[in-house]
Amino acid sequence: MARGSKAKYTNKQKRKAEHIEEGYEKRGKSHKEAERRAWATVNAMDGGGKKEGGSGRGKKTNKKPAKKGGKRGGKASAARPKAARKASAKKAAKTRKKRGH
Asked: Is 96 helix (H, G, I), strand (E, B) or coil?
């Protein structure tokens, strides 16, 4: 099988990669980089393509890679000086208020 072929992936894995890719593109990543990261995430979650695995049972999906991004953002915020954190928290609250959340 050629490198980069997605033939061994299930339709669900392909949809999952597509949604993850859209998220990365929304955050400003190029299409190529977003696609690369999306498939890396799917591979980390499912351990590669799952087609031809028998009756559909197998290893469970590891959801940690999908949740990692939010934690990383929190770490970055915590590393900033207190004044900068306060300013960005105020800005976020203001934005939420505008949107009506």
From this structure: helix
Measured between its terminal Cα atoms, the distance across the chain in Å is: 49
Give me the pLDDT at residue 28, please.
93
pLDDT above 70 (res 57): no
The sign of the torsion formed by the CA atoms of 76, 79, 81, 86 equals: positive
**Distance (Å, whole) CA 44 – CA 17:** 11
Average pLDDT rounded to a whole number, residues 4-11: 88
pLDDT tens, 26-43?
A: 999 999 999 999 999 999
* Least reliable range by pLDDT among 8-12, 59-63, 86-90: 86-90
In whole angstroms, what is the distance from residue 45 CA to residue 9 CA?
Answer: 13
* Domain residue extents for the chain: 9-52, 69-101
Task: Give φ, ψ of 8 to 5 degrees.
Answer: -85, 0
Around Cβ 10, how many Cβ atoms within 10 Å? 16
Q: What's 60's DSSP letter?
A: P
